[in-house]
Design goal:
This protein is α/β, with parallel strands linked by helices and about 220 residues long. A six-stranded parallel beta sheet has the order 5-4-3-2-1-9, sandwiched between helices. It has a three-stranded parallel beta sheet with strand order 6-7-8. Helix 7 links the parallel strand 7 and strand 8. The structure holds 3-phosphoglyceric acid (3PG). 3-phosphoglyceric acid binds next to strand 9.
């Protein structure tokens, strides 16, 4: 697949999603009910982060048992993590940052991939490796919408998935930016709700978020 085709695929996924929950799953048995709760609330595109011992089993279970979920792997820190994401059958990969090694591995494979950037120099490195769709992380902490608008000056063709500090109160403002395809965040899947198995609460939160952020 060409770099352009990969980016197009990712852009379509991100645009369709509008909101991508960043999932930190501590127990593999939470994975399927959590994914079902999110999908029931209209949130189908999920980022399962490689941050816990249960992450791989969790992603595997969601991919096998929740066919309506579009599963990406997040917190990809190196080429081994990327290989893990590919082996799992993830639909996309996403990283909080990037290294030359990771960019090279991602450019060489077919998995649609969004490297993370927080500065112009990091963005230039991603661009040089062929990535024009990136995660802006940590979005609020790295300057918020003002910083994103400033980056749009020298980089008018870059599209972003801002993540970090985004929630119910500011998601709509981010999504209104012309170079933002989707936003990521953990606010639709709070750790306390996952631990308590509050699946109906998560579905209700998703329903209400999607109603306002992505009207039919
Ligand atoms: C992450 O990758 O940790 C995400 O940016 C989540 O950030 P949030 O918890 O501020 O939404």
């Amino acid at each position: 697949m060409t770099a352009a085709a990969k980016q197009q695929k990712l852009a379509a996924l991100f645009k369709q999603a509008a909101v991508i929950p960043v999932l930190t799953i501590e127990k593999a048995e939470h994975a399927v009910p959590l994914a079902k709760a999110l999908v029931a609330g209209g949130v189908r595109t999920l980022e399962v982060t490689l941050r816990t011992d249960a992450a791989v089993a969790a992603a595997k279970a969601i991919i096998a048992e929740v066919p309506d979920a579009i599963v990406g792997i997040g917190t990809i820190l190196n080429a081994d993590d990327l290989a893990r994401a590919r082996a799992l059958g993830a639909r996309f990969g996403i990283s909080p940052g990037a290294t030359p090694e990771l960019l090279k591995a991602a450019a060489a494979g077919d998995l649609p991939f969004a490297p993370g950037i927080a500065t112009a120099s990091e963005l230039m490195q991603a661009l040089a490796a062929g990535f024009d769709l990136v995660k802006f992380f940590p979005a609020e902490q790295a300057g918020g919408i003002k910083a994103l608008r400033a980056l749009a000056g020298p980089f008018p063709n870059i599209r972003f998935c801002p993540t970090g500090g985004i929630g119910e109160a500011n998601a709509a403002s981010w999504l209104a930016e012309p170079n933002v395809l989707c936003v990521g965040g953990s606010w639709l899947c709070p750790a306390a709700d996952i631990r308590a198995g509050n699946w109906t609460g998560i579905t209700a939160m998703c329903n209400s978020a999607m109603k306002s952020l992505k009207p039919a």
